[in-house]
Specification:
The structure holds 2 protein chains of 2 kinds. Helix content of chain A is about 70%, strand content about 0%. Chain A starts with a helix and ends with a helix. Chain A has helices at about 5, 25-40, 45-70, 85-110, 120-140, 165-200, 200-210, 220-250, 265-290, 300-330, 335-345, 350-360, 370, 375-400, 415-440, 445-450, 455-460. By secondary structure, chain A is mainly alpha-helical. Chain B has one domain. Chain B has 16 helices and no strands. The longest helix of chain B has about 30 residues, at about 45-75. Chain B is globular, with a radius of gyration of 22 Å. Classes of the chains: A mainly alpha, B mainly alpha. The interface of A and B includes residues 7, 326, 330 and 366 of A.
């Protein structure tokens, strides 16, 4: 290995040549990125959108059936009252975290490599939160009464149970969705103006024009924009920690072995970032290949994302190891049985599957060759996507199917309707993603211009 | 990198004033040790209870230096490069800290750890974990931790010298290669160490967050120490024109982040324990919320979180070394208070302070600082052949 390789890791050097091809100038950036939007509709896009919408339709059938028959169509049975709904909820919310981390924390840390991927990751966050939100709402069985979860003054003086983490969830997730949406939109404004100026038809000019909020690119616009963006980044930063910590409280404040563990908050947050980066890579790698965005999403971006995955994956591994040791160290028969049951009980396949997917396979990220290779990154990401779902499955299902009372032991399996709505959220997520890349710039033109060689020269 | 001035012409020899620091530290340390020995003779139990806290306090600093050193090699930021030699010196003191642990291992086990007393055989719960909590295994683990830590410190230090002498790029690469697995091992062993040395003081209680909390504290305490050293060095040749306010800004921001993280961990652990309300978990907090300890616990939250948090919000303060160092010194005190709060309530159900609590931490600290400065003086203050050095100086 030569010194040049070492140099790649230099923080001061970030944002210099390697994060964008040297021959890119502001004109070519706008050309390439808005070209995706104003170019003709590709056949593959129509096909992909059709397939995604097909999945979404399966989900809609599932939800309609649920409403017609009640939540009993799912595999849930007391005490296993949560099942897929919470597994999927936590999984989707976790995926959203990468977006917030990339857009907020990396901005505050002056990591310029975030620039090419932040827009897309933020959009992914919003769509993932939308998918996540469906589960608790439908799990109530009467989604039209979902607003009862809010503390609304009423003549019956009935209030939500504020000591319940489920109510904290309502606040945490809705705050998260709101801030993420505003952050994403504020970042979009200058790009929307650029699209307005390039739109070919009157209708699209009007729509982009309204969305651009009268942006003219004046100096005071930029001044306010930068300030708002930084403030929102500051506001979003605690959310990266708080949302998944609150979700971990759903489990941790209970008394059930396997749930009542003080390690849950940081370990859930690390897992969320882990899952989120895996999903960003899952979507980004094909996108980069299809639209030929290698000039903007370089190997260094891939490598950095690989590193984040490695680090967060190791933290998750640290969490598993601690849980395992503590279950034994506790000397408590219920704790010990919980861990034994996870490893050797009826759901042993899920447990070993998660160890394989989350711990073993992603260790290939230690190798620089794998971190810089789109194929291996994609490969590892798929394992993490599955592994993180299995992790939540193991936590939710194993503890509830084997609780303190042997009389209430049972088995749980998702029914066809559980799978239908889960697939449906995939359809929703992918449909939104495909719509997004078709009508909005998936990469931030504004920020790419700032780090392009010419942008660096002029200071913008 | 082209505009960089030639670095070979400059010398990075440590300032001569370090001799004075070293001598003062030795005198303070010896006085502290003498007082502690007197304390040991008059009340041995209290001595070990105080000594454990004092020793762990300085251990976290040395171990944190090693941790930050691996982070430096992995990230190659200039904010940490400027302190690389300081971290190396801190890491090289780890074998000496093992010697300072010997009194506890050889004489203090029964005093400190109830599971190590003969009557523990009558405790059914302790018996279920006797395979882990027994004196021989405890010793073996301690030796293993120190072997790993010292070995890592040795290897990094050796390659660092090789880099100085030959400028061989392979040494640079090797240090980075060591640092990844090294950091993983360090965190893993530090987790076990936190369970062994602190959590098992109350062998019935356990918290899976404890190791995360300990590692966060380790990073914070050593960062505060590094900030103080940075402040000292930035006022003196040869580093006076190498440090820039941005470095201190970075230290301040990291301190802020870790302070918030401390609060996050502490709150999470408390909230989960409180809400679960299971007797075997709550005992730990019940102890710390009775017998006068409640008057210690609540101010600790304010002093350790709210005060530094509000101070560190100011960007001006973080960029100003003379102000940041005051916060760092203050927080080193609060770090000690937090560590004391982890251990002392186990020994005393009523809130107590003993002069030995001060004497031991000062004694260990004096001796440790003496060793640290001795190590720091052995090498130049900046690695002359580090590939990033031109950038550090160029930006300075």
């Amino acid at each position: 290995m030569t010194l040049r390789d070492v140099d790649v890791h230099n923080r001061e050097n970030l944002g210099k040549p390697d994060f964008i091809a040297q021959d890119e100038d502001p004109g070519s950036i706008t050309e390439t990125i808005s070209g995706v939007i104003f170019g003709k509709t590709y056949l593959w896009w129509i096909t992909a959108m059709g397939l995604s919408f097909g999945l979404l339709s399966i989900g809609m059938v599932g939800f309609v059936w649920l409403l017609a028959k009640g939540v009993g169509v799912w595999g849930i049975q007391v005490p296993n009252a949560w099942g897929f709904a919470i597994v999927n909820f936590v999984w989707w919310i976790g995926i959203g975290h990468a977006g917030t981390l990339i857009s907020a924390i990396l901005l505050l840390m002056r990591q310029e490599w975030r620039t090419s991927i932040n827009r897309f990751a933020e959009a992914m966050t919003l769509f993932a939160v939308a998918c996540a939100g469906l589960f608790p709402v439908f799990h109530t069985g009467r989604p039209w009464l979902a607003y009862w979860m809010l503390p609304l003054p009423n003549t019956m003086r009935v209030w939500p149970q504020f000591r319940s983490p489920l109510i904290w969830d309502v606040f945490a997730v809705s705050t998260y969705a709101t801030i993420s949406l505003v952050f994403w939109y504020v970042g979009l404004v200058p790009d929307l103006a650029a699209l307005r100026d390039r739109a070919k038809t009157l209708l699209s000019r009007r729509i982009y024009g309204i969305a651009a909020l009268g942006w003219r690119g004046a100096a005071d616009h930029w001044h306010n924009y930068e300030k708002a963006y930084l403030l929102l980044a500051g506001l979003s930063t605690p959310l990266v920690l708080s949302v998944h910590s609150v979700i971990s409280f759903d489990f941790a404040v209970s008394q059930l072995p396997g749930w009542h563990a003080t390690i849950f908050p940081p370990y859930f947050v690390a897992g969320a970032v882990y899952a989120g980066f895996a999903m960003v890579l899952t979507l980004m790698i094909p996108l980069r290949a299809i639209f030929n965005l290698h000039a903007y999403i370089t190997e260094r971006h891939l490598e950095n994302m690989g590193k984040v995955m490695l680090v967060t994956g190791l933290i998750v591994g640290w969490g598993y190891a601690t849980e395992l040791f503590m279950a034994w160290y506790s000397g408590n028969i219920f704790e010990r049985f919980m861990m034994y049951n996870r490893i050797f009980g009826p759901y042993w396949m899920a447990y070993w599957g998660l160890i394989l997917c989350n711990i073993l396979v992603p260790q290939i990220m230690w190798s620089k060759r794998c971190r810089t290779n789109a194929f291996w990154l994609f490969f590892a990401s798929q394992f993490v996507n599955v592994g993180m779902w299995l992790e939540r499955y193991v936590i939710v299902i194993t503890s509830l199917t084997r609780d303190f009372l042997v009389g209430s032991w049972g088995t749980y399996h998702g029914t066809i309707w559980d799978w239908a709505v889960y697939l449906g959220t995939f359809g929703l997520f992918l449909s939104l993603i495909f719509l997004f890349i078709r009508i909005l710039p998936a990469l931030s033109m504004t920020e790419l211009k700032m780090i392009s060689p010419e942008g660096k020269k002029t200071g913008h | 990198m082209s505009e960089v001035t030639s670095t070979e012409t400059r010398s990075w020899d440590p300032p001569a004033s370090l001799d004075k620091v070293q001598n003062t530290a030795l005198i303070v340390g010896l006085v502290g040790v003498a007082v502690s020995v007197f304390g040991y003779l008059s009340s041995p139990d209290q001595f070990f209870q105080s000594y454990l806290v004092g020793w762990i306090f300085w251990l976290t600093i040395a171990l944190g230096c090693l941790g930050w050193l691996t982070v430096q090699h992995l990230t190659a930021g200039t904010w940490s490069l400027v302190l690389r030699r300081v971290m190396e010196a801190g890491a090289r003191t780890l074998p000496f800290l093992f010697l300072l642990f010997l009194p506890i291992m050889l004489m203090g086990m029964g005093t400190l750890y109830s599971w190590a007393r003969p009557e523990a055989v009558n405790d059914a719960l302790i018996q279920t974990k006797a395979g882990y909590l027994n004196v021989e295994f405890f010793w073996g683990r301690a030796v293993l931790y120190f072997l790993i830590w010292s070995g890592l410190a040795y290897l990094l230090s050796k390659n660092s010298r090789l880099q100085d002498e030959t400028g061989d790029p392979a040494a640079t690469v090797r240090m980075r290669m060591l640092s990844g697995p090294g950091l993983v091992l360090l965190i893993l062993t530090a987790s076990f160490a936190s369970w062994d040395w602190l959590m098992s003081l109350d062998p019935h209680w356990f918290s899976s967050l404890y190791a995360f909390y300990f590692v966060t504290n380790l990073a914070l305490t050593s960062l505060l120490f590094l900030t103080v050293v940075a402040w000292y060095l930035h006022k003196r040749k040869p580093l006076d024109d190498v440090f820039v306010s941005r470095h201190f800004h970075d230290y301040g921001k990291l301190t802020m982040a870790l302070t918030m993280f401390w609060a996050y961990m502490a709150l999470s652990q408390f909230l989960i324990t409180y809400s679960g309300n299971i007797p075997e978990f709550t005992t730990w907090y019940v102890r710390r919320n009775a017998g006068g300890w409640q008057y210690y616990t609540v101010p600790l939250i304010i002093l350790h979180f709210f005060v530094p948090f509000l101070l560190l919000l100011s960007a001006g303060l973080k960029k100003q070394p003379s102000k940041l160092v005051v916060v760092a010194l203050y927080m080193l005190v609060t770090r000690f208070l937090d560590l004391y709060w982890q251990a002392a309530p186990t020994f005393h159900s009523e809130v107590t302070f003993h002069w030995l609590d001060i004497a031991t931490v000062v004694g260990v600290g004096g001796v440790w600082t003496f060793l640290f400065v001795r190590e720091l003086k052995r090498r130049s203050l900046l690695p002359p052949n580090d590939p990033y050095l031109p950038e550090l100086i160029g930006h300075g």
